[in-house]
Amino acid sequence: MSGQPIDHYARSLPRERRDSVSASGAVTTQGRSDVLARDFEDPDALRRLAGQIKQHALDHLDDYLRQAVAKMRENGVEVHFAPTAEDARTIMLDLLRRNGVGRVVKAKSMATEEIHLNDHLAANGVDCLETDLGEFIVQIDRDTPSHIVRPIIHKNRREIAESFEAHGLGEYDDDPATITRRARRHLRAKFLGSQAGITGGNFLSAESGRLVLVTNEGNARFSMAANSLHIALVGIEKIVPRDRDLGVFLNLLARSATAQQLTVYTQFIGGPKAANRPSGPEKMHVVLLDNRRSELLGSNCREILRCIRCGACQNVCPVYRQASGHAYRAVYGGPVGAVLSPLLAGDRFAEFADLPKASSLCGACREVCPVDIPIPDLLLRLRNRASEEGIESVGSPSMGAFATVASSPVLWRLAMSGSRAMNLLPIERIPAKPLQEWLKVRTLPEWRGGEFRKWMKSRKKP
Amino acid sequence: MDEVEEEAMSPGEREIFKAVEESLADLPGKTPLPEYEDAVCVASGRLGEGTPRQIFAANFEAVGGRVLARVEDLASFLLENDHGAGYCDPALKGAVGAPLEEAGLKVDYEYERDRCDEYLFGVTLASGAIAESGSVVLNDDDTSDRLAALTPWVHVAVLPSEGAVHLTIPDAIAALGGSPNVVWVTGPSKTADVEGILIEGVHGPGVQICLMPVDDRPAGR
Amino acid sequence: MFMATCLCDAFFAEAARAAVEVLEAAGCEVIFPEDQTCCGQPAFNGGEFRSSRRVARHAMEVFAGDLPVVVPSGSCAAMNVHGNLLQFEGEPDLGKAKDLGRRTWELCDYLVNGLGLDRWEGRLRAKVAIHDSCHTRGTGTGDAMRRLLGGIEDLELCEVGQRDQCCGFGGTFSVAFPHISAEMGTVKLDHALEAMPDRVVSSDMSCLMHLSGLAERQGRTIRASSVAEVLRDASAARTSTAELG
Questions:
Q1: Which candidate, A220, A228, A183, places its Cα nearest to that of A202?
Q2: Which of A163, A407, C128, C169 is most buried, by the most CB atoms less than 10 A from its CB?
Q3: Which residue numbers in chain C have pLDDT < 50?
């Protein structure tokens, strides 16, 4: 296959799919902008503040991590440490086995996607059911989520109705309310029959050891009410310094993700339930996930660790709108994924080095990021890294020759001196790939090389 | 990390702490914790006119919640919509359960998981509310059963006159307290996963009611 | 000092010329260092910092001194102001790069915020759609351009829908990701041409080159002008009217 894989994917994406993703992105982006303007005089100042708080937490992660762990243990939470994705899978399976768990319900968690937990549990005889409506549909379709917040942004109601029918959830009916009711009925029984609940975590307060979860559907609440074991997988970069800092992040997260002031359920989980309560987990475990985050902490792309997984960058990105999430071939796609995915791939960086190139560097992502991540700068640093490592970049002309000409006034003026006669050249026949790509869909303006210089010079004469 | 500390750690813990410390050791500059006033995290435009209770009620309704002032109104609502049977926290029997029964509804004072689909409504105590966001605060100390507040189609959070209504989100955070499970409920459960179309009533309640005593009705009602 | 940009040097002589005339009309003495070539952005965007630094160093030499460097391009200005900071990190001449960045201005930004111009005297009967180039995000150019154009008699400004969305040029992105680039450009054309403007105007010829090229292939009419040309044309019209009257 010639050309950039992401461009290729976009080209073969069915128009309907492209339109769903694009329209959805546009609506949520506008909604985000409206609600922030409505509620805050200076939303950008709030984003910058949030960015500083997060960067501070990251720059002092050794202290805050220590604090968070101590607090959690004090609260009766058992804390585990997973340096790699494999460690996390092993720890979590082991916990389930030790507790005799065969049936698990899961709330939506990108971290669990990142470590490919579901497949691992299934392969080891643990029935692990996704309960977030979008993730549930992804699971029954054997698909993968294509967006951080809206996992099935790429699917339409017809496809969903067909899946439901194929899985014995009723005769074909593509009414969204019916689909939702059916899921509610089906999953209710599963919640109540489960033996453990697995969640992620949006924030972890170092001050109080509280885990914060934000959801809309009620599935996370159910996962922590219907059974007696709660396991949360949390990336170490989710730690924030104090409870009061949560006020900043909670104000930005829902507005950035879904244009809501707050999601329907904002949960602050300190530990397992008290002994005298009827429902809730008797045991709570938090598995802290590193998986290269510690490596990134000191790198020149460390700002990406501020990410609070809101999806606003995906919603606004014009490239994402054309290609959709699956084009990025990784758990995290879009602008955040273009930085994070190659880095999380470790020594497989080269396989994903095309991701940072799939951008016109427009900077729209930087403008909507609730934690002020300078994504375009990070993309450029990654492009430079790829260049230094000699990783081939398909379709982009190498700039060495250009630089030679452009650092020599003599060579430059020579290049510019071709007169208007250049316009008589049959450019369609010149075997320079970039030129040919350009000409496939655009015309080239007339060559006017050197004309301005001549004019400028001629004015000097009296 | 000192030696004693290090020895007490599991291998995984040690590995992660070491890796973090190494990465941070050579950072050219570290970002300080910025100072800020709580006021920057408050959407003051949502505070409007009135008492915190009145503001809460208005904002709660704006997110799809329903405020009812009297038990009689609750009984009518439940009967009109055929939610004839449900659960009530025994501690609320006098204030809510008994009047509902008198109105002809079937009320259970024990929540049994196996019969969860039989409870079309669930009445539990709210621990407080937040005016700025229109949220009801629930926690394990006051909620008789997590499932009772979650599984019924209609959840009624009872906010007594002495219940704390926090004006802002920072206030509510400061008042989180010691309960291991605090939930801010901001309307009925919802999803927009299917083509971005908003549907209410997913895994949690489809109707979220707050029963507030009569003196604190929202202004104008 | 005037940095013409490599694009204008090669294709858009008229835009560069108009920019010089506009600066002179505003009372500036315009110096054109003939040894100038390019800001280095084409190599920079591809991540080839080594190559780009060679070009940028040449620019730093050519434009050394104390004078402001004015450029009819938001993206070239951004290269000097911001891009160089990234690629000269840890380099011994980072200071020189910062100095050039401090003195560099995009044209409209310079007129309004550098020279303090309140309005542009001129007249042009035209409906003008403004295309904001992505590199002017967070700079003074967008507002400055609107201020200048807004003051021109008989000129009707119209905004473009979904203006936060990039036109799809992105330098080598346009040829490395040809499908996505063309689709983005098509969406932009749809929005830009919706109100049927007489001209589509931008601070950046790069965007306009891509949009014009695309439009021509698609059989759509677009008259794309640099903002410099509009300012120059408006000024000229006023002058000639005054002469007649």
A1: A220
A2: C169
A3: 242-245
* The token pair that represents B50 in the structure block: 């009135």
Q: What is the mean pLDDT of chain A?
A: 94
Q: How close is the nearest chain C Cα to the Cα of A306, in Å?
A: 20
* Structure-model confidence comparison of residues B163 and A222, the more confident one: A222
In chain B, alpha helices (H): 3-8, 11-25, 52-62, 71-80, 98-102, 169-174
Residues with Cβ within 8 Å of B78's Cβ and at least 6 positions away in sequence, in order, are B84, B86, B100, B105, B120, B121, B154
Rounded distance between C-alpha atoms, residue A19 and residue A323, angstroms? 10
**Contact with chain C for residue A315, Cβ under 8 A:** no
Q: What number of residues does chain C have? A: 245
Local confidence band at A2 (pLDDT 50, 70, 90 cut-offs): low
Q: Which residues contact A352 (CB under 8 A, 6 or more apart)?
A: A329, A330, A341, A342, A345
Query: Tokens at residue C77, please?
Result: 């200005």
Range picked from A155-159, A239-243, C41-45 for highest mean pLDDT = A239-243
Per-residue pLDDT averaged across B137-161, rounded? 96
Q: Write down the pTM of the prediction.
A: 0.95
- Reported as a single tens digit per residue, the pLDDT across A69-119 is 999 999 999 999 999 999 999 999 999 999 999 999 999 999 999 999 999
CB-nearest to B190 from A52, A264, A288 is A264
A 1-30 near C (Cβ less than 8 A)? 3-4, 6-8, 10-11, 26, 29
pLDDT digits (tens, 9 = 90+) for A321-339: 999 999 999 999 999 999 9
Residues of A in contact with B194 (CB under 8 A): 133, 152, 157, 160, 176, 179-180
Of A132, A267, A294, the CB nearest to B16: A294
CA angle (A331, A334, A337) in 5-degree steps: 50
| Rounded distance between C-alpha atoms, residue A129 and residue A203, angstroms | 24
Residue B68's nearest CA partner among B91, B99, B42 is: B99
With contact defined as 3+ CB pairs under 8 Å, the chains touching A are B, C
Res B216: pLDDT = 46
What ipTM was predicted for this assembly? 0.95
pLDDT at A460: 67
A189 touches chain C (CB under 8 A): no
Q: Is A322–C176 a contact, with Cβ atoms under 8 angstroms apart?
A: no
Rounded distance between C-alpha atoms, residue A314 and residue A322, angstroms:
11
Nearest of A236, A210, A220, A233 to residue A285 by alpha carbon:
A233
Report chain A residues whose CB lies below 8 A from the CB of B16: 65, 81, 83, 236, 288, 290, 294
Q: Which three-class secondary structure state does DSSP give residue A80? A: strand
- Retrieve residue C204's tokens: 């950046």
- Whose structure tokens read 């910058």? A48
Round to whole Å and give the CA distance between B144 and B128: 15
Chain A partners of C36 at a C-beta cutoff of 8 Å? 409
Binary contact (C17, A452; C-beta < 8 A): yes
| Cα gap A294→A59, rounded to integer Å | 11
Q: What is the pLDDT of residue C243?
A: 42
CA B108 to chain centre: 22
